[in-house]
Write a structure and sequence with these properties.
With 348 residues, the protein is mainly beta. 3% of the residues lie in helices and 39% in strands. A five-stranded antiparallel beta sheet has the order 1-5-4-3-2. Strands 6, 7, 8, 9 and 10 form a five-stranded antiparallel beta sheet that branches. Strand 8 and strand 9 form a beta hairpin. It is globular. The protein starts with a helix and ends in a 14-residue tail after the last strand. The structure holds beta-L-arabinofuranose. Beta-L-arabinofuranose binds next to strand 2 and strand 16.
Length: 348
């Protein structure tokens, strides 16, 4: 089947059961779905099932550039499965760009949360001025359809929201991404369009730009505080520097808690690692600990980590199906830890 047919089929189908084994007899990890291209999987356990909130990659024929113009996605499909390795269901379109009144283009990596009997879908999209903001949409069903709020979350900017609810019930949004994710443009507090990638030449020995964290209000629709820096430090307590490109934050934040420790994980973007850092507070500072996953096929790397039935899993993507950076496919594999809680590095 050609690429075009694959994508068209995906956009027309709803509630599609898809063969969902994740590991071939050879040991090779297989894409979770092949009827559509998917990326940036945020996985959660809701109602005893795994729900995956991915980006829905499409061929929009936009030339590749450093701002990620070729990632020109227009809707979200939610996937679910009862067991890891079981059948994967594609629930069809859960939210469409055309139904978000303030949106311009590019629906990027989403996340979801559940509170007060409501499911929340958080999504980054450029507004009509081409500035990334983060929106929220609600549903009574984890698979949607989701109804968007009329405006973006006030004080939100940049991309890749990841919402973590702590064991005490407090929820936090981690977000941000440099280069095409525009985080650097907010460095001074107001939007400065001239900063294209990061802080630029001459800033390599300064602390790297940080992801942001903000506690969510009880209704999960706004921030209850101004976003703060997610500080990354090395084992000596020094800030990770902008020039330390194998360790500095780029995009794709995720948070999980293991044995009372907060694990902040992220992508290093142009060096293509998934890394993690640990703290005893959800606000950090987080001490860099190592690489979770070495580079995958394709430019971007993006993940989530979730516990399900007593095991930990990492959901991630690569570009195995298409061989093209902007047409990705999500995968899952078990995440292994050492006795001290450190994460074993995966070579995909
Ligand atoms: O999918 C578009 C962007 O690519 C995401 O927002 C980033 O994390 C990267 O995966």
């Amino acid at each position: 089947m050609s690429t075009t047919k694959l994508v068209m089929a995906g956009s027309l189908l709803a509630l599609v059961p898809v063969t969902g084994f994740c590991q071939a007899p050879s040991g090779k990890i297989k894409p979770l779905v092949t009827n559509i291209y998917t990326a940036d999987p945020s996985a959660h356990v809701f109602d005893g099932k795994i729900y995956i909130y991915p980006s829905h990659d499409i061929e929009a024929n936009v030339p590749q550039d450093d701002e990620g113009g070729h990632f020109n996605m227009r809707d979200y499909h939610i996937l679910s499965m009862d067991v890891i390795g079981g059948k994967v269901t594609d629930h069809g379109v859960a939210l469409d760009l055309k139904d978000i009144p303030w949106a311009g283009r590019q629906l990027w990596a989403p996340d979801a949360a559940f509170k007060n009997g409501t499911y929340y879908l958080y999504f980054p999209v450029k507004d009509k001025s081409d500035v990334f903001r983060i929106g929220v949409a609600t549903s009574k069903n984890p698979a949607g359809p989701f109804k968007p709020q009329p405006a973006p979350i006030p004080n939100s900017y940049s991309i890749d929201p990841a919402v973590f609810t702590d064991t005490d019930g407090k929820s936090y949004m981690y977000f941000g991404g440099i280069w095409g994710g525009q985080l650097q443009r907010w460095h001074t507090g107001t939007y400065n369009k001239s900063l294209m990638t990061d802080l630029g030449k001459g800033h390599e020995t300064e602390p790297a730009l940080s992801a942001k964290v903000a506690r969510m209000s009880d209704d999960m629709l706004t921030f209850s505080e101004s976003p703060k820096d997610v500080k990354l430090i090395d084992e000596k307590g020094n800030a990770i520097l902008a020039g330390d490109v194998d360790r500095r934050f780029f995009e794709g934040a995720w948070m999980h808690k293991f044995k009372d420790q907060y694990y902040f994980s992220y992508s290093t973007g142009d060096t293509h690692f998934l890394c993690y850092a640990v703290s005893d507070s959800p606000y950090g500072p987080f001490t860099y600990k190592g690489v979770i996953m070495k580079p995958v096929t394709g430019w971007t790397t993006h993940h989530s980590i979730v516990e399900f039935k007593g095991k930990w899993y990492i959901f991630y993507h690569d570009a195995e199906l298409s061989g093209k950076t902007h047409l990705r496919n999500v995968k899952v594999r078990e995440l292994m830890r050492n006795a001290d809680g450190s994460i074993q590095t995966i070579t995909p």
